[in-house]
Amino acid sequence: MVVEKAKVNPSIYDPQHFYPKFLTMVLRFILRGRVRPGTSQILIYTDTLPMAQKKQAKAVQIAIKASCQHEQPQIPFHVLNHRRESNAWLQVADYCCWSICRKWEHANADAYDRLKVRLAAAEIDPMSRGNGKAYY
After folding, report:
1. For residue range 12-53, what is the model confidence (pLDDT) as tens digits?
2. Neighbours of 74 (CB within 10 A)
């Protein structure tokens, strides 16, 4: 999912609104039709959330869990925040994001083209549904 921050309405730019809104879009895509039968739990790893207070980060985790529970109500979820350096899967996700960033911001699709065969779908641009207004 590609989110152009300049096109995000300032009313949802606060991390307590921004992260649940866009992360739950990604999770909906992943969880619909891709959870194997017999799955006993789902672990969601994120990089450290950029919150000044733990209370704010907890609110984001609760919103994420609520959204996920809506998609897969029979399976318990755990949301874990780690520095990406400490989790190999977060490093893989970071590389994928970097390759997409290079494609979108620099018109350089070399790394993206190497990953494309492994992607479940092309990236989604939720901002394309708006009016195209840039706020900054």
Report:
1. 877 777 877 787 788 888 888 788 889 999 888 888 877 777
2. 7
User: Which single residue is written with the structure tokens 């739990």?
Assistant: 41
Cα torsion angle, 45, 15, 32, 104, sign: negative
Say what the pTM is: 0.69
- Inside any domain, residue 119: yes
Long-range contacts of 53-56 (CB under 8 A, 24+ apart): 56/15, 56/16
What DSSP letter does each residue of 40-81 carry, written as one string? --EEEEEPPP--SSHHHHHHHHHHHHHHHHHHSTTS-EEEEE
Note whether residue 135 is domain-resident. no
Q: How many CA atoms lie within 13 A of 8 on its CB side?
A: 15
Count up the domains in the chain and report the number: 1
- Whether residue 136 lies inside any domain: the answer is no
CA-based diameter of the chain, in Å? 47
